[in-house]
Amino acid sequence: MTHPTVTQPDLALREGHPPEGPAAMPRLLLVSAALAAVLSLSACGSNVSLAEPQPIRGYVSNMGTFQNFIATRPTPSGFRRMYPDVQLVLPQDIATMEMRNNNSRYFAQLDNQGRIVGGSFR
Q: Average pLDDT in the 101-107 region?
């Protein structure tokens, strides 16, 4: 039976001390880069929230961003919060079949948990 190798930074963390030496540098660089980003946002007076993404107003024009959002399997309320100007049509909803070419109405497909997993603009 082999035992995992324990490095010096791992021992330091277990003992409650910050890691030292070259092995600790990538971790320290990552933490300092994240801190610098947060400080630069607050220093410039930005209202950007790191926890909650900002809603995208208007109809869908960037399909890549939209597809990435759908890939997160949002709930219908999450969809409406992120794309408030796009009409969301769920499978149980009654809707007219008028053609819209401006990506303003999305017919969603749901999984068993009620999350959006796909759909189409019509």
A: 95
